[in-house]
Each structure stands twice: as C-alpha cells, then as structure tokens.
Amino acid sequence: MQAGKGTTKKIVNRDAFSHFLASLTFEQEEQFKLGNALFRKVWVSSPSSTQASDGLGPLFNARACQSCHLKDGRGHPPFDASRESGVSMFLRLSVPPGEDDRRLALDGVFAGEVGEPTYGTQLQDFAVPGLRAEGRMVIDYTDLPVTLSDGSVVTLRQPAYSVADWPMGRWQRT
C-alpha cells in the first residue's frame, strides 16, 4: 500500500479525494465528515431564512468550496475562456513590497507578497445583491508551437491574465 495505513481501499476514480483515510479513529472520521459537509455546503448572504447557511460575502469567488475545488481537488483553467468561466480558478493580486511591507508580508500567509491596497491579495468576482464584484478575470491564450526531440510539433497555450469590469471603488453600489 503506497500510503501505508493512510491508503484508502475505495475505488480509485475522480472521487478519490472525497474519501477519508482508513486509519482514522471514529472521532477523526466524524471530524472529516463534518468538515466535508461544510466544504460541500452552499452558502447564502445574510440575513436569510436559512440561518444555518447564511454568512456569504460581501464578496466571494463561489458559494461553496466544492464549486472551485472540483471533486475535492484542484481547479483547472477553462479550455475556451471566451465561453467558459474560470470558476475553479482565482486571480492572485499583489504589488511590489516596500521596505515596511516586506516585514508585514513575512508575518502573513503569503510571504513576500503584498496585496493590492484596494482589492487585497485575491480578486473576488462575485458579490451579494446590492454590491459590485471587484472585477472579472479574463484569460487570453496564445498558441505556441513547440518542436519535440523526435521532430514532432505540439501546440502549447500560453495564458495571459487581465481584469475587466473594475469598479470605481471597492464598495461601490450597483
């Protein structure tokens, strides 16, 4: 077993990350299942009649963690960005650190990165009713032909990221 006691005996398929480890205790399995339920929960903005699910926003990338982390895994870029959204991706924002910013950034989560002063470290492309999102991530691809060692040519796609629909200010009302 490649992961020792951590190896799952479930069928290895696209749901592999949704299974708990076989070596978990009963209490640990309970914690896993509670966490997984929160991960799959679809949140709504408050106040709402569903108090157990409210608390979304004011800005967000998706209403459920699983919306971005497809099948509990990593997201992926859209194949055709003109027709698909990048819902399972987000755009990291940062500015070059100043001397004071460098020390503060090292104390934070993203060492060496300083968030854009108005928008922070991540573009939030959805908002609760009455507010505007921070913008919309745009992905443009450039085809790059590459010759392999056997002489065959493959085409890679190089993404270029930009932001459309920037609001005038962070909390500008629609």
Key terms for this structure?
disordered C terminus, extended, 3 helices, 16% helix, alpha+beta, two-stranded antiparallel sheet
Mean pLDDT: 80
Counted up, domains total: 1
Uncertain segments of ≥5 residues (pLDDT<50)?
169-174
Quaternary state of this entry equals: single chain
Helix count from the secondary structure assignment: 3
What would your notes on this structure say?
By secondary structure, the chain is of the alpha+beta class. It is 16% helix and 16% strand. It has one domain. It has helices spanning 26-40, 65-68, 99-107, and strands at residues 59-60, 126-127, 136-147, 153-164. It has a two-stranded antiparallel ribbon. The N and C termini lie far apart (55 Å).
Sum this structure up briefly:
The protein has three helices and four strands, in the order αβααβββ.
Topology (SSEs and partners):
Blueprint: H1 26-40, E1 59-60, H2 65-68, H3 99-107, E2 126-127, E3 136-147, E4 153-164
Antiparallel strand pairs: 1-2, 3-4
